[in-house]
Specification:
Protein name (chains A, B): RpiR family transcriptional regulator
Helix content of chain A: 55-70%
InterPro entries (chains A, B): Homeodomain-like_sf, HTH_RpiR, RpiR-like, RpiR-like_SIS, SIS_dom, SIS_dom_sf, WH-like_DNA-bd_sf
CATH superfamily of the largest domain in chain A: Glucose-6-phosphate isomerase like protein, domain 1
Distance between the termini of chain A: 62 Å
Pfam families (chains A, B): HTH_6 (PF01418), SIS (PF01380)
Structural class of chain A: alpha/beta
Domain SIS (chains A, B): 125-261
Oligomer: homodimer
Strand content of chain A: 5-15%
Radius of gyration of chain A: 26 Å
Largest interface: A-B, 67 and 71 residues
Organism (chains A, B): Sporosarcina newyorkensis 2681
Order of helices and strands of chain A: HHHHHHHHEHEHEHEHEHH
Chain lengths: 282, 282
DNA sequence: AACACATTGCATGTAAAACTTCAAAAGTCT
DNA sequence: AGACTTTTGAAGTTTTACATGCAATGTGTT
């Protein structure tokens, strides 16, 4: 028997009435139980602190502290299977497996994103972008790819979107921003200093700063009004932008839902112009 | 300010170095932090118990216990988003589901990629790129983001890499190609005609054409010497580039394995130049 | 170099939680 | 009903964790 819950089931029938009540609490509300003290749990189920402690002995633990530790481990464990996938620095694995592990890693990061993401924040950012009179997108070096993806998608939806060049920003782009504008700043390790400068200038113009970065406490994260992080609690030196793209796709989906009339209208206009240009084949 | 993470972000810049280390731990591993004692956290990040406790005061709490309680509350609350997932007639909730479906869709695409990918083809492409004297990367419109990502990563590894502008190609870039060169052409719906033109010119120069597209039989797929497809049997009008990025990451991983000496050497050179420029913060 | 100031960790004090003991209450058997 | 066993909680003890004063160290400034 491995988890605490399994241990409890085995011993349950041989427990005293009071201990059974406590045991039931552990099964039904494990998260709460992991945080409360023996006294508090006793109070919750209507027995004395002593009875709670005695349950630990009855289950074969050396004391209540040990039981609590076991419970907390069970709770943290599910989170750990992601990190098990990541540092697969096994020298024995052949090269083909290394290639495939790239996908496994991406999947793990996506899973983590799905668990961590706060949908409300996505909505808030979508609303901000919809109602901004002007949007500046800044992303240099390795961040430029993701920045351009956002730029292109926003351009499909609305006007007044500008993007920096991949090599650096032009002050002229940023100084057009107003208090009704938004600046989306991408910044990933190695954090470039000019990214921070661009954000600072945009902030001086009163624009809302939306930071897309890897950690809340990264240089941009500290400046930004809203921050989106790709994989906060992961330890991955080599950052992939795949999860960032997914994040942006969520944002874009949100904007399409909230602002569908305008977007549809613009789409029509674009279609018309495309047709004139004969830009596309098929 | 509501959550502990937000509180930390506000105060972060005014914290002492030691306190910042502790604060970062709270952001990066909140679950673990919620369970550990002040002493244990201090041990984890390498500071004394005292410093941990002082962080609580710096953040405006009446003591460490209060901070811990706040963190534990934040942790127990997210459990409520289960109701978010459950089907509901509430319009708002359905929208939230739509957002989350973006991730589910990405995961499905990745899964598909993992099943379909031929690792040998990845190796072949990696070898081709390593041994090319010159690499041209073409990707216009929506394809440019992925193209740039590849460009940037290749630039980190080797010289003689050029990329088209997002709006169109310059014939001069392509005509420098030789029979020992490679041209990586990105093309996704709506297929732009100039992409095909660029590929044709590159082929006339004798360069190997590597097509990154959505279907084997897309315009580029028919021209290319090797073709990579993101999601052949998926029917998704709004194509995401997340899987393309994953594909590129596999390719890049392959190149790093096969050509690690050269890459390491170039990396060192770059590091040296970066240091001179002071391009990066931290 | 000398000063002020901030930061940090050790040592000690205090509060709280875990553990132990013991006697009363409840249940069981003859 | 009386004796025995089991169960339980209040009170006391020990351990652990939080809190605080103080000295040592480091940093920047005049």
């Amino acid at each position: 028997m491995r988890t605490l819950q399994e241990t409890i089931k085995v011993h349950y029938s041989s427990l005293s009435p009071g201990q059974q009540k406590v045991a039931a609490f552990y099964i039904e509300r494990p998260q709460e139980a992991a945080l409360l003290t023996a006294f508090q749990i006793g109070k919750q189920v209507g027995v004395s602190e002593t009875t709670v402690i005695r349950l630990a002995y009855a289950l074969g633990f050396s004391g209540y502290s040990e039981l609590q530790q076991a419970l907390r481990k069970d709770w943290l464990l599910p989170k750990q299977d992601i990190s098990e996938v990541l540092p697969s620095k096994d020298g024995q694995t052949n090269d083909n497996q290394l290639i495939r592990q790239v996908i496994l890693r991406e999947q793990a990061i996506l899973q983590n994103l799905a668990e961590q993401i706060k949908v409300d924040d996505v909505w808030a950012m979508a609303e901000t972008l919809i109602h901004s009179d002007r949007i500046y997108i800044g992303g240099f070096g390795s961040s430029y790819a993701a920045a351009y993806w956002l730029y292109y998608a926003l351009k499909q939806m609305r006007g007044n979107v500008v993007i920096s060049s991949p090599t650096g920003f032009m002050t002229e782009d940023i100084c057009d921003l107003t208090t009704n504008s938004a600046a989306v700043i991408f910044s990933f390790p190695r954090y470039r200093q000019d990214t921070v400068q661009a954000a600072t200038i945009a902030k001086e113009q009163g624009a809302k700063i939306i930071g897309i970065t890897d950690r809340t406490l990264s240089p941009i994260g500290q400046l930004a009004d809203m921050t989106f992080t790709s994989s906060e609690n992961e330890v991955t030196d080599a950052h992939s932008i795949a999860s960032i793209i997914s994040l942006l796709d969520m944002l874009l989906a949100g904007m399409r839902i909230r602002d569908c009339e305008h977007i549809a209208k613009r789409q029509q206009q674009l279609e018309h112009l495309y047709a004139e240009q004969q830009l596309f084949s098929e």
